[in-house]
Amino acid sequence: MAFNYDPNSANTEKASVDTSKKLRIGIIGTGWIADAHIASYKKMQDVEIVAGADLIPGKAEAFFKKHGVEGVKTDYASHKEMLADKSLNLDAVSVCTYNRQHAPCAIDSLKAGLHVLLEKPMCVTIEEAVEIMKAEKESGKVLSIGFQPRLDANMQMIKKIVESGELGKVYYIQTGGGRRRGIPTPFGTTFIEDKTAGLGALADIGCYSLDMVLNAIGYPKPLTVSGYKSDFFGKDPNYSGYRADKRAEYAKLFGVDDFAAAFVRLEGDIILDFRIAWAMNIDTCGDTIILGTKGGLRIPSTECWNGSVGGAMSIYHEVCGSQVRTEIPIIPEDKNMSLFDKKIRSFLDACKGLGAVPVPTSQIIYNQAILDGIAKSAEAGKEVEIVIPEI
Ligand SMILES: NC(=O)c1ccc[n+]([C@@H]2O[C@H](COP(=O)([O-])OP(=O)(O)OC[C@H]3O[C@@H](n4cnc5c(N)ncnc54)[C@H](O)[C@@H]3O)[C@@H](O)[C@H]2O)c1
User: Fold this and answer.
1) Confidence band (pLDDT; 50, 70, 90) for 49?
2) What is the atom index within ligand 1 of the atom nearest the CA of 343?
3) Is the CB of 187 under 6 A from ligand 1?
4) Which of 68, 123, 219, 301 is the 20 to 30 Å CA partner of 49?
5) Which residue's CA is the nearest one to ligand 1's atom 19?
6) Which of 82, 102, 119, 145 gets mutated to test ligand 1 (max ligand atoms within 8 A of its CB)?
């Protein structure tokens, strides 16, 4: 029996999990986010963690030691060696590498006949996303992208409000968010170097705000985009958000964007106005708003945008000629299961054929197409058409 993910259902307790067959799991990339993956896998009774690979010698071994997981094979120079080790009998992998290694690791894992949980953003370019989807199609395996905020009850409420018809026809969306000083360098430079990250704030946190609104409105196809990117803070050797002793080094290595903005046309005559920042000289670049013909929804932004709802949402509508605001109270966190546990559980259920793929590529390809479109438009200095090659 699969877990019931509906937060409004009375039955959100953990359903009993069939442990007669344990899924054999491998972890590719044992950095920061892999900590969250392994912590959740350890709680799942139908899982055996059997292998891990990292490009940095000794890192995977130290990782499993730190997490107290024994008997895991780690003597691989890269993900390719791990995938070639047929003695592992792997069923599935988590791909927790930096962005530039998402596509090769996901494609090679699917080609090896494994189910894949791929961290967000899906990848860096639309061309990579198409290759990933081709490999997924050929393999027939489960591929889910790691957008755990979707499993938050408040996020699901946004979708429910839109689907209820309360807003009428949606025609304009403003979304995004940002931090005043929040270029992510706590564990090194893999988020800021082009060779590892490929895209900066745009992909790292921009993908979340796009998913929040696009998922709510049913992921319409993006048609055109006029995009902008900048790197004023990241490349500044005096940027106060860097460790004082690393400022010059990080500024030199910075090769991605720390701010991006775009105007996107979506199928269905919907306009998406987007901006995202790792660093900016303002406290917020605005709440998310969804405007419809019958009502408007305001979703408060968070200080450190990470894909969550920042406070009680409001619907602005008209009742018998009066302008009314209805507050939607914040739904408290599910005490039984964290969002990350739900992400892992829903992926495992999909692998076992017990549930749908939680975050399918058929949707996220449009998220990636917008990120890619913004990057290409920013480079070209003009609006571009979004073209998604045939898969
Ligand atoms: N879902 C979330 O909440 C969330 C949060 C943070 C990061 N992320 C995503 O997770 C990804 C990783 O982030 P991180 O902070 O863990 O990065 P990180 O740099 O700390 O770790 C990545 C690791 O992958 C390894 N690696 C790269 N290519 C490899 C390969 N081919 N084979 C084996 N190992 C390889 C690197 O050596 C490194 O140790 C990023 O894409 C990021 O966007 C998701």
Assistant:
1) very high
2) 1
3) yes
4) 123
5) 190
6) 119
- Beta strand ranges found along the chain (DSSP E): 23-28, 47-53, 92-95, 115-118, 143-145, 170-178, 222-230, 259-266, 270-277, 288-292, 295-299, 313-319, 322-328, 384-385
CA of 320 to the centre of ligand 1 (A): 53
Average pLDDT, the chain: 94
What is the amino acid identity at position 323? Q
Amino acid making up residue 51: A
32 CA from centroid of ligand 1 (Å): 7
pLDDT digits (tens, 9 = 90+) for 144-165: 999 999 999 999 999 999 999 9
CATH class of 23-148+338-358: alpha beta
Residue 307: its pLDDT value, please?
A: 66
Residue 322: what residue type?
Answer: S
Instruction: State which CATH number among 3.30.70.100, 2.40.260.10, 2.120.10.30, 3.30.360.10 fits the domain covering 150-328+368-384.
Output: 3.30.360.10
